[in-house]
Design a protein that fits this description.
Chain lengths: 334, 334
């Protein structure tokens, strides 16, 4: 709970903060925001992480000071674990021996901490750090604001996803008051790639097709494309969503060759169409509208199986009632 | 001024609302928002426009009732003209004979109305309509909220552009409280295209190249591409920005063939790089970071001239100080 977190901070002095492996904007932004908050309260605090910070986020204040570790090697009064579903997600040994404060916004999060502050109504852990700052009577400095704002932007898809609430936008407004330039954060998040992203996009976009019904789009990324363009992790962020701009497309399948005859698959859907269950039937998983799996074997055959499974799911839904964007996507009628 | 607008509405009954030709999200959203507000106050009000509403915006409540006219054909106490730089922008005859209320958020707007309410601090005219609603003591209904929210989203590029203020986000928060589902509006704005957008994107993306310095990207759209894909107006929204995701790219040139040997050109830039002055040297115009022009003649030659002009501008800037993203894009340093 929030009050326990406030009390813990007030009564202790030496903290570490960590987040999950392959950290995203919310993991990095919320960790940095909390670190700036603790320092503004004259606490001894540092961020530790197993993996590198994605290069674009190195533009955030303090991101260069994150210390890479694979096991706990110092003494702390408590370790904050940000946006992790379980104690193993940070990939740091001996973390389970620490006084752990588990801060997350996923309802499904395991209560692995000594203190567990889980708030599923928060759009991002960053939003919770803003709340913590207010609860503890801290000042929202420009540094805190920038880090937390980036967390909000990345975890809500720039205030597009259904997790965007009036509270999210109110907090964003307060962060701008505290000195954030929204366009500066957008530059960091969206325009900090290398040319390799453009080059890879050209090649992947060229493969986009749709099935006979026109409702399912699919696309491919070969090992050769990655080699030719020099693409790095993250360069293909969001590619899977591109075909969804078409109103008539309900789902998108993006297959990436990871080694010959082995593919990582991303699935995306709109509305009530559930691609998590499709992914599960291929030993994968995820959320209703965003899921993934690994498949092996003949590319054409596997792709065709995935697309067919989705087409069948759409047909089944259409029999009950014509598929449509879920209620929350419908506007009130005049 | 706002108080004059409030008084006018309170003391009159029969209104029309219009906006500029080829209306955008702010023009349509703010007009619809005002229309819903006036009706909630039991006023007689309608929206008139010369051009069709873009099909995606027809999903907004009330958009189907907009009446197409080319001249004023009814009696009104006053006509609201939304987001227009001058009295001719709506393309409606006899408008200059009316009691005109000019509502705009561009500082450069001519004061062509009997009443002129110009607020350059507003991110969108939609934001002003929210302010009007509060000032007049109206209730922010779900219909008003949805229309105004769409105006905010489109005119701020989903809260990315520098015109996004703490006030913009505060208003957005209030609109969500009034019933807006942000993800529903995003579906309308970003995912309501036809497959032709995807097909055109594939062809245009395939042409993207950069110059020798790597700082200027350029791309083409032929008449044949449009014909083959069945693309319609708006299908290429945002294509010009795609190469700007690369940090090293400072400008983008997008040439569209409108008839053989005649091209419409869009220019985009980052930071201090001024493409309006480039456009002006080709008899075009625009803003510092977003401008356009028309050119004729040999395609390769014209493209090369445009790219060279931008490369020269970058070189000239680099001599003064190395080109960089403008200050407001820089984050505070740790």
């Amino acid at each position: 709970m929030l009050s326990q977190v406030v009390e813990l901070i007030e009564n202790n002095n030496k903290f570490a903060i960590t987040t999950h492996v392959r950290p995203d904007g919310d993991g990095i932004g919320s960790s940095l925001g909390l670190n700036w908050l603790l320092r503004s309260l004259d606490k001894d605090s540092e961020i530790i992480a197993r993996d590198d910070v994605p290069s674009s986020y190195l533009q955030l204040p303090g991101a260069g000071d994150i210390r890479k570790v694979s096991e706990i090697d110092r003494e702390y009064d408590a370790v904050f674990v940000m946006e992790c579903s379980d104690i193993k997600r940070p990939g740091i040994a001996r973390l389970d021996e620490q006084f752990v404060v588990n801060i997350d916004h996923h309802a499904t999060c395991e209560h692995f901490g000594t203190i567990n502050w889980i708030d599923p109504t928060a759009s991002a852990v960053g939003e919770m750090i803003y709340n913590l700052c207010k609860a503890i009577g801290g000042r929202v400095t420009k540094e805190i604001a920038e880090c937390v704002y980036l967390a909000l932007v990345t975890d809500t898809g720039s205030f597009h996803f259904p997790n965007t609430t009036d509270r999210t936008l109110k907090v964003a407004s307060e962060l701008v008051k505290a000195g954030v330039e929204p366009s500066a954060i957008s530059e960091v998040v969206y325009n900090s790639y290398s040319w390799s992203r453009v080059a890879l996009m050209q090649k992947v976009m060229a493969t986009v097709k749709r099935d006979e019904t026109g409702k399912v789009a699919f696309m491919r990324q070969t090992l050769e494309m990655v080699e030719e363009t020099g693409a790095v992790d993250g360069d293909n962020n969001g590619f899977v969503n591109m075909p969804l701009v078409a109103k008539e497309v309900f789902a998108s399948v993006y297959m990436r060759e990871v080694e010959p005859n082995s593919y990582r698959v991303s699935l995306r859907s709109k509305g009530d169409l559930n691609v998590a269950s499709i992914a599960e039937s291929f030993d994968g998983g995820g959320h209703k509208n965003a899921a993934g799996c690994r498949v092996e074997g003949n590319w054409d055959k596997r792709e065709s199986e995935l697309v067919s499974a989705i087409v069948e799911a759409i047909k089944k839904m259409d029999k009950q009632k014509p598929i449509q964007i879920k209620e929350e996507f419908e506007l009130s009628l005049a």
